Fold:
Amino acid sequence: MKWISLIPVVAVGALLLFAATDFPEWGDPKSPASQSPVSSHFINNTGVDTEVPNMVTAVLADYRGFDTMFETVVVFIAGIAVLAILKGSGRRRRGPRTTYKVEAEPDLIVTNTVRLVVPVIQLFAFYVLAHGHVSPGGGFQGGVVMGASFILIALAWDLDHALVRMSLPRCIAIAAAGIIIYAGIGFLSMFLGGEFLDYAELERVLPVSREMARYHAMLGVEIGVGFTVTSIMFALYANLSSEGRLKGGL
Amino acid sequence: MENAIAWVLLFPLIGSVACALLGMANRKLCYPISIISMAGATWAAVETLFQAVACPSAEVSYIFGGWVLDLFPRGVGIEFRADLLGALIALVVVGVGLIVSMYAKLPVEKETPGKEALYYPLFLLQITGLAGIALTGDAFNLYVLIEVAALTGYGMIAIGSNRAAAATFNYLILGTIGASLYLLGVGYLYIKTGTLNMVGIQEVIAANNLHDSPAMQVAFVLIGLGILIKMAFFPFHAWLPNAYSNAPTTTSCLLAPLVTKVMIYVMIRMVLTVFGVEFSFESTLWSEFMPWLVVIAIVCAAVMALAQREIKKMLAYLIVAEVGYMVGGVWIYNFYGLIGSIFHIISDACMTLCLFLATGIILRACKTTHFDGLRGLFSKMPLTMIGFFVGGFSIIGLPPTCGFFSKWYLITGGMVAERWEYMVVLMFSTMVMVVLFFRLIERIYLAVSESGQNLGKGHGDLGLTKEQTKFEEAPLSMLIPLLIAASIVMIIGVYNQEVVNQIERFLEPFNLPRGTGH
Amino acid sequence: MFEDGAIINELLIERLNYFIYVVLLLIGLHAMISKRNLIKKLIGMSIFQTSIILFYVSIAVKDEATIPIYKAEHDPHGAASKAAALELNSTDEAKPLYAPAELQPEETQQYANPLPHVLMLTAIVVGVATFGLALALCLRIQQGYGTVEEDELLVKIERSDARYSQSPLAKAINPRRRPARTSRKPRTASKATRVSQKSASSPKSTGATQTKKSAPKTKATQARKKPAPATRKPAVKKSSVRKPANKTTSPKKKGAE
Structure:
C-alpha cells in the first residue's frame, strides 16, 4: 500500500518540478511579483497613506483588512468547533480507562519561577501587539504570546488553576468581543459614509488627520485580533489537554 | 443602498457572534437570532441581484477599505465583484440558509441537545463563508473563505456522533489537500503575474501573453485538482457519502445542497474569469478528456446509488452524480452546456434541499431512513411525501420542475457540441434515477387497506396496522420549510426563462461556441 | 552538466528554494496518504502546509533587500518627515506634524515584497486552526473507538456500519446475538437493565400476546408495545433500546410454538 501511494506523489512532484523551470530565479528583482504595481504601491505609498512604518502590518490590517477579519473568524471557528466536538463527550468513558490524575504536587521551583515570569511575558505580549506598527509583531503574534502565558500557568500548576482565571465562558466571550471590536470599527466606518473597513472616515469622530485615523484604527483592529487569538489559544489547549472534561467548563 | 453586497456577509457574521454570546446565557435565543440574520442576508442578496441586473455592465464592484486609486480601478485591496452569476449563486446560498434555519429548531434540539450555542454560530459562519465565495473577486480571499466554509463544515458534522467524527477526519484530510493545492495554484499565478485580483490576473495574462508558459498550465492543473477534490468529483468523492449520511440532520440539509455547488461555481469562475476562455478550453487539453472522466463518474455514482438501501447514502451518491453533470456541462465547451451547468447549480441546490429536508422529517418520524422502514408513509405524512416526490421528480427531470429545464439545456449542449458520450450518459443516468425514485415511491405510497389486514405476498408483505398509517403529519416548523422548498422548485421551473435570460446575459461577453465548437 | 541552461543548474542552483519546497511537499503528501496512524497523517498535513508557506515567502525575496519595514531615512515619523513638515507648516494652515514622502522607484528595490508575508500570516493561522480541529477529532475518535490506528478503526467502523444499515425488518425477525464490543457501556450495567426489563415486561407481553392477532411482528409494533422508560439516554444507540424487545420476542415465539 505504501508503494502504491508513491505513484501519485511522484506524479505531483514531476508536475511541480516541470513548472519550477519556468519560475524567475530566487531573489530576482525583476520578477513579475516584485515589479508588479500592486507591491510597488505598497512599498512606496504605505508611509504616505497610513504613516505606519511596518508595511506588512499596514497591508494586513488596512489594505487587506477584510482578509484579516476572516482570519480572526477562522480562529474563532476553531475554538467553537473544538468545544462543540469535545463537549460532553469525555464523560462517557468508552475506551480503555486511561487516568490522567496528577498525583504529584506542583513543583516549588517551577511555580515560583512561573509566578515571577508570567507578568513579564504578558507585558511582552502587550509590547509585541502595540509595537507591531513599527517592528515585526501585531495582533496575532501578541495574542499567541499572551495565550501562552495562560498555558504556562496551566502547565506549572494544573488546569483548574488557570481555568479560575480564564474560564471557558469567559474565553468565548472575549473571543466574540475581539470579533465585535474588529467588525465594529468596520461598521463605524461604514456608518460614517465610507465602505466597510475604510478607516479614513474615522477622522470625523477622532480629532486626527485621515492618515492618523488609519494608524489608530489599525491599532484598534489589532487589539481585537489579539483578544480573539489569546482566548482561543487557551481554550484550545484547555479542551485538548483535558479531552473536554473541564471541571469548571461551560 | 450601495453597501448591500457587504451586508450579505455581515448579517450572518453579526448573527453568529450574537448567538455565541447570547446563547451562553439562554439557549432558546439562538433560533430567532439565526432566522433574523438570515432574513437580513436574503434581503441584501436580493438587493445585490437587482443592482447587478440594473447596472449596464452587469456587475457590482465593492472595494473593501475604499482603496480605489486612479492607477488601480480594481483596487489595491480586496474587491467583491457581484456579476450576475455571483449574485445569483449568493442569493441561492442565503435563500437555502434561510429555509434551513427555519427548519432547524427541532432537529438541533433533538440531535445535539445542549450544544445550540455552539451549533448555530457554526451554521451562520458556514453561510458567511459560502456567500463570500460566491461574491469575492480576489483569489486569496477565496482561499480564506473556502477554509471558513470547510472548518465550519467539519465542526457541524463532527458535533454529532462518534461515527460522524471518524467520517469527518477523512473529510478533513482530503479537504485540506484540496484547499492547499488551490493555494499552491494561486501562488504559481502570483509568481507569474504579480497580482491577486481575479480580473487583474486575466489582464496580466493577456498583456504578457503567458498562455504557453508551463507555470500557467501547472497552475491550472493544481487549481483544477484542488477544486475537484473539494467538490467530490469521482474518484475524489470518497469523503462525501460517509460525511453527509452520518451528519446531523440540519447539517446535511445545509451542506448537501450548497457546498459542492459553490465549488462548481468556483471552477466556472476560474475557467471563465481568471484563466479566460481561450486558455482554458483551447490551450489546455481538459476539454478533450474531461467529458470522458465525467462519463465514468456519472456511471459509477449512479450504479453505487442503485446499490444503496438507505435514503441518505443514496442521496449522497446522487449528489456525486449531479456534480458529474455540472462538470460535464462546463467542459463540453458550449454555450448551452454552460447555461445548463449554471442553471443546474441553482436547480440542484433547491431540489437537493427539498430531498434532504424530507429525509430529515422521515428520520424524525420513523427513526430510520432504511427503505424497509418507509412503508405506507404516504398515508401517514402526505404533505411531506409530496415535497419528497417533487424533489424526486426534479432529479429525474420531469416538467414543470426545474430539473427538467436544466437537463434540457445540458442535453442540448451535448448534442450541439457533438459530445455523444455526454448525452448518452445523461440519458442512462436519468433512467437509473427513475428506477431509484419509483422504487421509493412504490414503497412509500402503497399503504395498508382500511381493515388493517396484510396486503398479501404480492405487495411485499407490508403488514401494517391501521394506527401505524393514521395521519400524523410532521411538525409545522419542519413542514413549512419543506413546502416552501418544493414550491421554489416548481416556481424556478415555471419561470426558468427569466433566470436563463440573466445567465445568457452573463455569458454573452465570453463568446462561447453555439454550434459545433470543438 | 552545470552550465547555464542545463536542467541541474536551473533546478538545483538557481532555483534551489523551489526544489527544496517541492521535496518537502512530497514528503508531507506521502505521509498524509500512506501513513496508517491518524496523528502521523496530521503531521504530514502540517509539513505539507508548511512547504506551501515557505514557497510563498521565498517569492518575496529580492537580492540585497531588507525586511519590509521602513529604514530610518524613509520612516514616516522620522527626522526627514519632520523636516518636510516644518517646511510645509509655514505655508499650510493644517500644520501637520509629519509629512512623509512617497518613495522613488529606485528605492523600492531596497525592501522585500510585503504581500506574500501578509498572505502567509493568514495561511499559518488557518493551518493552526485546522490542526487544532483535527486533533480534537482524533481525541473524539479515541474516546469512541479506542484506537487511532486507521486499520483497526476501519474494522470497527465496518462492523458498526453493518449493524446500523440492517433493515428494520431483518432486525425484528432475526434478533442479533449481542456482540462483544468495547465501545459500549460496561456489561454489568446493561445486563442489570436487561434483566430488570425482562422481568418487568414478560408478564405484560404474555398478556398482550393473547389479545393480539398473530400477525408477523414488525419493529414498529414492538416499539409501540415496549414499556416507555426503557434505557432512553440520547447517547445509547437504537440497538440497546431494541435489546429488551428482542428478548421479549424469543419467549413469545417459544410460547406460540
Notes: Residues 187-257 of chain C have pLDDT under 50 and may be disordered.
